[in-house]
Design brief:
2 domains; OB fold (Dihydrolipoamide Acetyltransferase, E2P); single chain; alpha+beta; 6-stranded mixed sheet; Rossmann fold; 341 residues
């Protein structure tokens, strides 16, 4: 499989610029997940890589070969790029194995022989090969769509919200199966999702988009623990933002001193994830105003005397009393952004 490089990409749709200066890299065999709010350009970027949307600027390289630049545009059918859409889009008159074999071209063999048995086994379709689409569940149909894309052995696999139509439990099961399958096969893949948690769980590389640009690309740990901006921090999960004054690797806040990067200086906005705050016998006093129970844990909202609302993640067995008094302390370093107050 191959490495994908997109540099300074711009795409116009309906006379409006929907992607601008987009640059990403996806290493060979990696799963990159694009996440961002609706209308930020996630699917347009995927379509541009597939050749379904023509850029007005920038370049797209796959395994060193140019797919698109100022003088080159390779047609979609010649890109060796597989596509898995939101809906399975199967042919109702063809069996599972015939749907998978579609697009492989004449082989002089039966459809069943044309599709590798290993692929059917890997996608959990061996026992379903002779069924028709109306005899499949939503998850099974999506597996067929995935197998069809993989059967052609593409250099790159693109998946546009493939779990969108599935119920939560099936979505989680198929998501985990897909990530494991792609890694076993060594497939280079790019997946679009609206679900931030899904992106963090699945991805080797997370691409966060906003307003037609890439706000940040990095590993799940990097984008969550060291977001490039306050917007990325808030988009990817619960976050506390505290005003502070930084000097010599420490910042003074209403919760006391916090370790910060040595080059931080002056007024700053400090970001702390809820799991970095602790309830205990010492710290800053606050009163619980709300509890958001999540089963295995909970988010406790507590208000300090200064009027600052803090979010604290606690195990399900350590939930304090609603309207009770608590003490909050910080554990771990903070992420610093310029003070925008």
């Amino acid at each position: 499989m191959s490495r994908l490089t997109v540099a300074d990409l711009a795409v116009d749709l309906g006379g409006q610029r929907v992607l601008r200066d987009v640059s990403i890299t996806v290493d060979e065999g990696a799963l990159a997940v694009i996440v961002g709010p609706s209308g930020c350009g996630k699917s347009t970027l995927l379509r541009a890589v597939a050749g379904l949307a023509r850029p007005v600027a920038g370049l797209i390289h796959l395994d060193g070969a140019t797919l698109s630049d100022a003088s080159t545009f390779v047609a979609p059918e010649r890109r060796r790029v597989g596509w898995v859409p939101q809906s399975a889009s199967l042919f109702p008159h063809l069996t599972v194995v015939q749907n998978i074999a579609f697009g492989l071209g004449p082989t002089g063999r039966s459809a069943r022989a044309a599709v590798p048995a290993e692929l059917l086994e890997l996608t959990g379709l061996s026992e379903l090969a002779g069924r028709y689409p109306d005899e499949l569940s939503g998850g099974q149909a999506q597996r067929v769509s995935l197998a069809r894309a993989l059967a052609a052995q593409p250099d790159l696999l693109l998946l546009d919200e493939p779990f969108a139509a599935l119920d939560p439990q099936l979505r989680a099961e198929l998501r985990d199966e897909l990530a494991a399958m792609l890694r076993r096969l060594g497939v280079t893949a790019v997946l679009v999702t609206h679900d931030q948690g899904e992106a963090l769980l699945m991805a080797d590389s997370v691409i966060v988009m906003r307003d037609g640009t890439v706000a940040q690309q990095g590993s799940a740990v990097e984008v969550y623990r060291a977001p490039a901006s306050a917007w990325v921090a808030a988009f990817l999960g619960e976050a506390n933002f505290l005003a502070g004054v930084a000097e010599r690797g420490r910042a003074t806040t209403i919760l006391g001193e916090v370790t910060v990067p040595a080059d931080a200086s002056g007024a700053v906005s400090l970001m702390l994830r809820p799991e970095q705050l602790r309830l205990g016998a010492d710290g800053v006093p606050a009163r619980v105003s709300r509890i958001r129970y999540g089963g295995h844990d909970a988010i406790v909202e507590a208000r300090t005397a200064e009027g600052q609302t803090l979010l604290v993640r606690v195990p399900a067995g350590d939930i304090p009393a609603r309207d009770g008094d608590v003490m909050i302390r910080i554990e771990g370093p903070g992420v610093v952004f310029p003070d925008e107050s």
